[in-house]
């Protein structure tokens, strides 16, 4: 394999390792290369970052290498963290979240049966926001993924357990059930 491909893979591994970083030993094992080559790849990347107008750099701390931002740009990162982020969820995401909260664990197709529309994007949004998570697989054909609310869901809505969700009246039909749940979640979303 060409050195530039190995360098690109190393860069990707540094990025993917995030805050944990990566060691030379891990690079050697993952890429099946010698220690000398792993060290050489890191040094080349460090050189590239230092000698180009790049926003990243590689640091070493306790034998672990990290891809990080350059300190001279810190004022911009501070502004990014201080800028208010939109935390509003779409109506579709709120509906999907309500369905999952009251019917968990539940598959994507079961969610879609209740909503009557494709819910892929809503499920992806909720997973990305860590409000729902995979809760195993359902027995049967295809073994579809089951979804349930997460600890972050409880924290986000100020609940200590799922049992604190407001009870739904027994005589509600599905449309009313969704409206009640949507009302609860939209009120909670507005508060956060």
In short:
With 192 residues, the protein is an alpha+beta fold. Helices cover 53% and strands 14% of the residues. It has a three-stranded antiparallel sheet with strand order 1-3-2. A three-stranded antiparallel sheet has the order 4-6-5.
Describe the structure.
This protein is of the alpha+beta class and 192 residues long. The chain folds into 2 domains: 3-71, Winged helix-like DNA-binding domain superfamily/Winged helix DNA-binding domain (Arc Repressor Mutant, subunit A, Orthogonal Bundle); 91-191, Winged helix-like DNA-binding domain superfamily/Winged helix DNA-binding domain (Arc Repressor Mutant, subunit A). The chain is 53% helix and 14% strand. The chain contains 9 helices and 6 strands. The strands form 2 sheets. The protein has a 3-stranded antiparallel β-sheet. A 3-stranded antiparallel β-sheet has the order 4-6-5. Strand 5 and strand 6 (145-149) form a beta hairpin. Helix 5 (91-103) packs across helix 9. The radius of gyration is 23 Å and the shape is elongated.
